[in-house]
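REQUEST ID: PR-0412
SUBMITTED BY: lab tech R.K.
PRIORITY: routine
TASK: structure prediction, single protein chain
INPUT:
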Amino acid sequence: MLGQRYHHVAATTPQGIDVSPLLDDPLVVVTAADRADERPVALRELATRSFVVPPPTTDCGQAILRACHQAGFTPTTRYITADIAAQLTLARAGLATALVPRTAIDPATPGIRTAPIEDRPILRVLFAAMRHTETANPTTTAVIAALRTAAWRGRTTHLPTA
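STATUS: complete
OUTPUT:
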């Protein structure tokens, strides 16, 4: 099984499950193309912006809130949605700033600009989870190795969506 967790949220792994991290996937700042440059942004620089954020009950929403609080501000929430396509549409229209996982978007998408967060990165870990066994299953080992290779290969390019 594939899963995700955010560094700002405590990790909980059920007993009997082994987790194999595949990739740290940072959230990037997404704005309308005419509203910002691509330079790295300190999170506190976003304190005066209006945001589109996932619901605060989600791990991503919690990670964003915690990171902003650690940077010294509470984000001004204009829109709440877990739908990344909706977040990108609102950012493209200049209605809100979004913080979206890098691998969830193609930075070449027309009308948006992405920038990394330089001082307080918000990271999600993509991982493979499997039932713990005393001996390694060669098929499972091969699948995890292939996933890890694909994740690392995709670090500098957009990962295709399935």
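NOTES: The first helix runs from residue 59 to 70.
REVIEWED BY: pending
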